[in-house]
Amino acid sequence: MSADLPLAEPGGEPHERADAARNRAKILEAARMLFAERGVEQVSMDDVARAACVGKGTLYRRFGDRATLAFALLDANERALQDACIRGEAPLGPGAPAADRLCAFGEAMLDHLEEHFEILGEAERGANFRVGPYAFRRTHLYVLLREANPRCDAEFAADALLSLLTPAVFRHMREQQGFSLERIKAGWHSAVAGWLASP
User: Considering just the CA atoms, what is the radius of gyration of the chain in Å?
Assistant: First the structure.
């Protein structure tokens, strides 16, 4: 079943021209630097084009908007997380009970959010829930929930659990509520246990 999981597709084209690949690298490096210096919300696409020394047309043709640019910055991280879920070591990867894998997935996602929540928040602005990382995460949770408790409403539970892993909710819990990362992880474990206990 895991072989059928949808993968994110934010990466570069498989057969990029050399000049296009150079421009892409310059744009991503400029965006990474500016986002780190100013914060994502304080950086415009024009700022990125100037810092990368490329025309605005080149930037917009390649990335379209700031959300797509942020998504591309996280490409390697997203693919690594997906690969760990599909082929990595247990408990995140295959070989552990489904309940343990659900807990490990949440912890991995929360670590990912802790490191990248601002860029993730921008990347997921206006996200399409049917494609990319969200589709992968939802399918992954659905499969594990069905395996761990065939009686639970896995379709609803997958979306409900993923709502706890959105950048906006994570930021609220960390900054407004002042919850520690350990407390949020413990809450994820409790949420998983609740769904697995449901009739």
Answer: 18
Instruction: Calculate the alpha carbon distances from 104 to 33, 51, 59, 108, 159 in Å.
Output: 31, 39, 37, 6, 17
> What are the structural domain ranges in the chain?
18-70, 73-196
What pLDDT, in 10s, does the model give residues 62-119? 888 888 888 888 887 888 999 999 999 999 999 999 999 999 999 999 999 998 888 8
Architecture of domain 18-70 in this structure = Orthogonal Bundle (1.10)
Question: CA 80 to CA 62: how far, in whole Å?
Answer: 23
If 0-12 CB within 10 Å is exposed, 13-18 middle and 19+ buried, where does residue 19 land?
exposed
For 39, the token pair is 């914060």
The residues, ordered by sequence, that sit 6+ positions from 70 with a Cβ below 8 Å of its Cβ are 31, 35, 40, 119, 120, 122, 123
What's the rounded mean pLDDT across residues 125-152? 85
Entry pTM: 0.76
For every residue of 36-94, DSSP letters joined together read HHH-GGG--HHHHHHHHT--HHHHHHHH-SHHHHHHHHTHHHHHHHHHHHHHS-TTTST
